[in-house]
Amino acid sequence: MAASLRPLFLAIIPLLMISSLIRSSECQGLGFYWASPEDGNLADICNDHTNGSYEYVAIACLNFTGAISVPPYCTTLGPDIDICQGLGIKVFLSLVGSPDLSPEYVLGTEGFICNEFLNDSSGPSVLGATVNGTDFHFRSGSNNSLDLLAQALRDNCILDDKKVYLSAAPRCQIPDYYLDAAINTGVFDYVWVQFFGDPVRIGPGNRQTQVNTN
């Protein structure tokens, strides 16, 4: 009987360790993704976070489909961004859409992002407030030169008054077609994996399943 219970006991130990870590962390380090006003008022979300658990928010406000553009509803987010940052929440500019960058345009794109969204001393931001960093969140288009853009943001966007953060949001399949090369540069401060709406490889034979958060 004792021998038969040993595998069960060994299996329970990691679960107890994980449970202990979860309780001790008190859900610190959570973030959320804001894609449009349909997700709610940004300032209200930051103000309503429970026990200060949110530390990050990524706002989808720079679209790389065709000419790089900022959705009109993002240009009035300045006061909301200030409120979130005042609560200690880091705000990331999420780069979305269908990019098709060439190496020749990387430095110009990096300079635009750095000066218009991150640099407090370069004048009013397109958003009405500067953000803490950039987030790579691509699901279509080309993966050309995204690694060069990530490297350029790390190497060239150096501000005296604050650290510039970089994050990436790959899908859970490895490798992520769009972000793998960029992540492999090693320049990202955060990588948050998106498990929703994506087929996942699990178990022997790489069986496919669908993760559904509903």
From TrEMBL:
Domain GH18 stretches: 28-214
What PROSITE patterns does UniProt report for this protein, alphabetically? GH18_2
SUPFAM superfamilies registered for this protein in UniProt: (Trans)glycosidases
Keyword Signal carried by entry: yes
- What reaction does this catalyse? Random endo-hydrolysis of N-acetyl-beta-D-glucosaminide (1->4)-beta-linkages in chitin and chitodextrins
Under InterPro entries, the record lists: GH, Glyco_hydro18_cat, Glycosyl_Hydrlase18_Chitinase
Q: Which UniProt keywords apply?
A: Carbohydrate metabolism, Chitin degradation, Disulfide bond, Polysaccharide degradation, Signal
The residue range of the signal peptide is: 1-27
Q: What is this protein called?
A: Acidic endochitinase-like
Q: Which organism is it from?
A: Coffea arabica
